[in-house]
């Protein structure tokens, strides 16, 4: 768990740097497009659609390469390189099959959107294809590097390099060096850069390569691989639908069309910052958890599951406190009179769902690598139907507030169902007898942090409020000692005078 914890810290730092770049990108784009929310809404809607499509055309080979690579030795076993070859061929074939209906249904797809938004969809319609291709291979190589325990390197490309490139393109557009058409083209083209860098890093990793010795797998092997990939695709699609359906349906169903998307996606971005440590910890823990399950080491699986659960709960509460306390400051730096004041209640609604999601630990990861993985798909389908239905009913009436509540309710039901399922089937739950101490520490910290009067200077207020949260919360965690990993890590910092 020490390795997992250190990898989590490193990946979290990388991801926070990416979040800072993402925040700068959103901040500048909000001001650059403050008088044209429709263009800003289009770019974000286009990216969201591409995110879903690239996941679908991958066909589940991301989880496949991430899970099965470790089963084949890097030397003397062609199956690893053959697996990489097969996984690389799947998105190419799937993209070709996707393009056929995408081309012939252009008119029908365009008419899903409000009439004033349709010219944007029509003009840039076919740019979806190269964007999806670049994104799919970026995800594929990321999955391989995660399996090789190079989590930080994989995160660096998506979280830092890609966002830095986005920021550069945005800045050049701000200087009026090119038109909006060129801006869209460059915003798509930059996705090829991290994909190529990840390929180079993968090539330099032991065991990476391509082999066309397809007979190194038996028919039974291919059936097993296809079965695993197919079910993980089916399980993943609901996750992506839940992650993007609210903003996509907002563009279609809200009276303001794509103009309402920037307000909601800004709230989603702020909420996403809350999940950065969770994503880093789950990605870092996955290879070790997967290896322990492959070796049938139930004691290690249980230990990893419980210790990850308490660590994730700690950071979930911390992020909720820091973000919640600084929401007025976040809204104050955005353009006034453009509807961004709605971000405060939107973020609070969305963070409730994320707190429940993070607080229930690595339920999804454990179920996905076990023989019970089909459950994730079944419960996900039911929840997607619920979420789509709630969005369909509530967005026309309540705009982005309806989308936010639909997302939170779906996440709450989804995670509670997984907790119950794991307890019934495996007698496991993500909580320890000290989990309540984390909530107590959070409650005491909240009373102190939210009781501080607001300073007139925004940056001074952010500094003081965040510092108070960190000091009080950390002090209480040191006193309560809910997590052995945290105690050991803080002790190591005091002894060695360094983070790692």
TrEMBL record:
Any one cellular-component term (Gene Ontology): plasma membrane
Membrane topology: Multi-pass membrane protein
Primary location: membrane
Keywords (A to Z) from UniProt: Cell membrane, Membrane, Transmembrane, Transmembrane helix
Keyword Lipid metabolism attached: no
Keyword ATP-binding carried by entry: no
InterPro entries: Poly_Biosynth_Transport
Chain ranges passing through the membrane: 12-33, 45-65, 86-104, 124-148, 160-177, 183-204, 225-244, 264-289, 310-327, 339-356, 377-395, 401-424, 436-456, 462-480
Domain of life: Bacteria
Cell compartments where the protein resides: Cell membrane
Protein name: Uncharacterized protein
Organism: Taibaiella soli
């Amino acid at each position: 768990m020490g390795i997992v914890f250190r990898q989590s810290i490193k990946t979290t730092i990388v991801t926070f740097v990416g979040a800072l770049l993402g925040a700068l990108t959103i901040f500048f784009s909000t001001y650059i497009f403050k008088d044209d929310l429709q263009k800003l809404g289009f770019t974000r809607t286009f990216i969201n659609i591409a995110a879903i499509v690239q996941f679908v055309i991958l066909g589940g080979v991301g989880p496949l390469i991430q899970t099965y690579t470790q089963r084949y030795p890097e030397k003397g076993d062609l199956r690893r390189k053959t697996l990489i070859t097969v996984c690389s061929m799947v998105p190419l074939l799937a993209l070709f099959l996707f393009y056929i209906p995408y081309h012939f249904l252009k008119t029908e797809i365009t008419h899903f959107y409000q009439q004033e938004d349709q010219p944007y969809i029509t003009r840039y319609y076919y740019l979806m294809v190269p964007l999806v291709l670049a994104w799919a291979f970026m995800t594929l190589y990321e999955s391989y590097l995660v399996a090789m325990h190079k989590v930080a390197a994989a995160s660096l490309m998506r979280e830092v390099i890609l966002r830095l490139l986005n920021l550069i393109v945005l800045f050049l557009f701000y200087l009026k060096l090119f038109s909006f058409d060129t801006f869209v083209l460059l915003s798509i083209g930059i996705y090829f850069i991290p994909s190529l860098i990840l390929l180079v890093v993968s090539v330099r990793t032991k065991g990476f390569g391509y082999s066309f010795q397809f007979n190194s797998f038996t028919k039974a092997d291919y059936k097993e691989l296809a079965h695993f990939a197919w079910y993980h695709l089916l399980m993943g699609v609901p996750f992506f639908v839940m992650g993007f359906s609210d903003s996509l349906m907002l563009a279609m169903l809200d009276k303001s069309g794509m103009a309402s998307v920037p307000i909601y996606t800004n709230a989603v971005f702020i909420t996403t910052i809350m999940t950065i440590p969770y994503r880093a910890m789950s990605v870092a823990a996955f290879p070790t958890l997967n290896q322990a399950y492959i070796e049938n080491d139930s004691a290690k699986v249980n230990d990893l599951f419980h210790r990850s659960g308490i660590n994730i709960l700690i950071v979930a509460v911390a992020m909720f406190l820091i973000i919640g306390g600084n929401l007025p400051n976040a809204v104050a730096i955005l353009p006034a009179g453009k509807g961004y004041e709605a971000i405060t209640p939107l973020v609070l609604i969305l963070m409730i769902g994320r707190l429940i999601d993070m607080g229930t630990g690595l339920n999804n990861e454990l179920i996905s690598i076990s023989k019970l993985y089909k459950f994730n798909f079944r419960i996900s389908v039911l929840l997607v139907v619920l979420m789509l239905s709630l969005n369909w009913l509530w967005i026309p009436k309540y705009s982005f507030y309806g989308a936010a509540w639909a997302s939170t309710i779906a996440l709450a039901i989804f995670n509670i169902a997984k907790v119950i399922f794991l307890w019934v089937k495996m007698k496991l739950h993500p909580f320890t007898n000290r989990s309540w101490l984390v909530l107590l520490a959070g409650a005491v910290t909240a009373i102190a942090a939210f009781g501080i009067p607001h300073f007139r200077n925004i940056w001074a207020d952010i500094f003081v409020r965040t510092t108070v949260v960190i000091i009080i919360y950390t002090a209480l965690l040191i006193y309560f000692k809910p997590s052995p990993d945290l105690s050991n890590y803080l002790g190591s910092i005091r002894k060695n005078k360094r983070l790692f």
